Amino acid sequence: MKKPKIILSFVGLVLSTGLIGCSDGESSSESAGTQEASMNSDSQEEDNVDNSADHEGETKSQDEPESSETSSEQSPEGVRQELVMEEDQIFLPSSFPGQAIENVLVSVASNNDQTYSVQYQTSEGEALAHVTGSRFASKQEAVAELESFQNGKKVGPFEQGGEDLGYGITGYGEGATGSQYFSWEEGNWLLSLSSATEDEIDHPAVAREIVEYLESHTLPAPGELGVVDIHYERGSEEVNVDIRWQDGSMVYELRTGRDPLEAMQMATSMEE
């Protein structure tokens, strides 16, 4: 009877060993599955973090404008400090007709050590003036630039047909096909008017108003040349005023669509 016990014990041992092996396999499988799930979870969390970081980067990129030379609108105070050109070579207007200086908005369109470009407008967005300063390689090149701009704008002088503009200044006019021209000189400045003949702009009358204004207000002193070009658009009341002068190797310019006298007010307020 002892042998069956031994056999039964042996069979039990075998069965027990098999069960233990199965339990270990299942435990290992469960452990591996748990570890794999944990790794998958960690990987998913990392992906979520990466995606979140990417999304934040995209949001930041969308929120922040790309770098540009053009600055946001600001008041005239402080714009001079923003420009990188040497302080003594920067000319900017300080007076705008009919506008309180604190209501004038400024945007810098170009800003480096060779040129600056500043745009002025009203708080309602109406353009006032566009001012630039450009450095040329030499004084001779700057003078040549002004001579090119001046070309064809001077009328006369003629022995007859001059207009007395007051203060010892004489202006001269002439006509061409469909157009009329008028000019006069004050110091190193040439001032020129042009318009369509059919519009019958009274050039001498406009010139006298400007001459009168300049008797008590002074345009910037050019090195050798300064030009004021006033052009009335055909068939409309629009006028374009382009004021340029040379100083050393610099050429300065103020352009505006305002009335010529208002343009003079802005130009005579330009200072270093």
UniProtKB/TrEMBL annotation:
Biased composition, class Low complexity, residue ranges = 68-77
Region Disordered: list its residue ranges: 21-80
Biased segments, Polar residues type: 25-42
Indicate, by first and last residue, each region the UniProt record lists as having compositional bias (Basic and acidic residues): 52-63
Instruction: State the name under which the record lists this protein.
Output: Lipoprotein
